[in-house]
Amino acid sequence: QVQLVESGGGLVQAGGSLRLSCAASGRTFGRYAMGWFRQAPGKEREFVAGINWSGGRTYYADSVKGRFTISRDNSKNTVHLQMNNLSSEDTAVYYCAVDPTDSGSSRGRYDYWGQGTQVTASS
Hints:
- By secondary structure, this protein is mainly beta.
- The chain is 0% helix and 51% strand.
- The protein has strands at residues 2-7, 10-13, 18-26, 33-39, 46-51, 58-60, 68-73, 78-83, 92-99, 112-113, 117-122.
- Strands 2, 4, 5, 6, 9, 10 and 11 form a 7-stranded mixed beta sheet that branches.
- Strand 4 and strand 5 (46-51) form a beta hairpin.
- The chain is globular.
- 34% of the residues are buried.
């Protein structure tokens, strides 16, 4: 079983920044991609960003391109999401997930999920 623990969420003013982190532990799959998703109240969960094992491929939702950056540190089994210029539209619970197929795209097979961390950007 894989355990994923997110951290770094909080309350920030519009225009501010936050850096989310997700630490993976437990069973490993060799090379796996990781992704970030979010779910706002009353809305479906949506893909935010993903990264493959090597870090050579990254994917972003159109709504966050140019503002968010995903990165990973395989020596620490962690993935990060740097979020800049936040707006109220980014307010949501953010989840990290593991894709054992090492895709990292929005179409990847994300089998394992964290509990989520709340991000609130106030205007």
